[in-house]
């Protein structure tokens, strides 16, 4: 079985220069709306220190810094994406509030109970053990802290699922090629089957149970955009 970390690196290494714009185009401009919905659950707690896992080009980290008083640490596996992220942070004049570092979600380089909140985006399809990765992320937040995530989803409604399947298998690869060239054509071909395979092995009910097993309570779920996006949130149980 291919190493999911290596798959992620090979997929995203060529993408950073146009990632943010193309992500919006290829998600029908829903990516930004989904991100805001995820961040809502974290910034409302007025945190002082936040961790953004799978930070990529730092879009979420920048939003967290803009919408809260927190200092934000972003961590990502792909150095090329982080390079673009650092340029974005500098452009937004947030160098004193946002720092980015390379690392793996499965082995975070932080002590227990370091952060007041945590976000992660489009992550669990790229790790070998989603449950262990969730537990590792919960480890580094304080009791009572909010964890929130954004993932793609397979629409639960059969009608919309058919249209989603056609879009992800036919339209998305072509749109990727036309707007981003060979690299985005590869992403377009990869994305639909990757999402389908993930939820075949880990259905939505599994995700909710996994969050509880990781030590989170008051777990909430919001299915967005007819089932194309999934925002989840929960609170680390207090001792």
Describe this structure in words.
The chain has 239 residues and is of the alpha/beta class. The chain has a single domain (4-155, 203-236), classed as Vaccinia Virus protein VP39 (Rossmann fold), CATH 3.40.50. 48% of the residues lie in helices and 22% in strands. The protein is built from 9 helices and 7 strands; from the N terminus they run αααβαβαββαβαααββ. It has helices at 4-12, 19-26, 31-43, 59-67, 79-91, 130-139, 158-180, 182-201, 204-213, and strands at residues 49-53, 71-76, 98-102, 115-121, 141-152, 216-224, 229-236. It has a 7-stranded mixed sheet, with helices on both faces. Helix 3 packs across helix 4 (59-67) and helix 7 packs antiparallel against helix 8 (182-201).
């Amino acid at each position: 079985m291919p190493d999911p970390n290596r798959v992620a690196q090979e997929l995203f290494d060529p993408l950073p220069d146009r990632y943010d714009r193309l992500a919006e185009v290829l998600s029908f401009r829903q990516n930004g709306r989904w991100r805001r919905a995820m961040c809502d659950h974290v910034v409302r707690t007025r945190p002082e220190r936040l961790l953004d896992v799978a930070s990529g080009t730092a879009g979420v980290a920048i939003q967290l810094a803009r919408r809260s008083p927190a200092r934000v640490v972003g961590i990502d596996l792909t150095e090329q994406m982080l390079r673009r992220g650092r340029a974005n942070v500098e452009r937004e004049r947030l160098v004193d509030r946002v720092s980015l570092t390379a690392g793996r979600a499965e082995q975070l380089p932080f002590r227990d109970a370091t952060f007041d909140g945590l976000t992660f985006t489009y992550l669990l399809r790229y790790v070998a053990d989603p449950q262990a990765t969730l537990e590792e992320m919960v480890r580094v937040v304080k009791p009572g802290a909010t964890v929130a995530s954004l993932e793609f989803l397979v629409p639960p409604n059969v009608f919309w699922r058919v249209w989603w399947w056609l879009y992800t298998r036919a339209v998305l690869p072509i749109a990727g090629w036309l707007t981003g060239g060979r690299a985005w054509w590869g992403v377009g071909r990869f994305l639909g089957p990757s999402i389908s395979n993930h939820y075949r092995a880990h259905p939505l009910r599994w995700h909710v149970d996994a969050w509880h097993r990781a030590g989170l309570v008051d777990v909430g779920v919001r299915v967005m955009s007819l089932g194309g996006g999934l925002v989840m949130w929960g609170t680390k149980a207090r001792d």
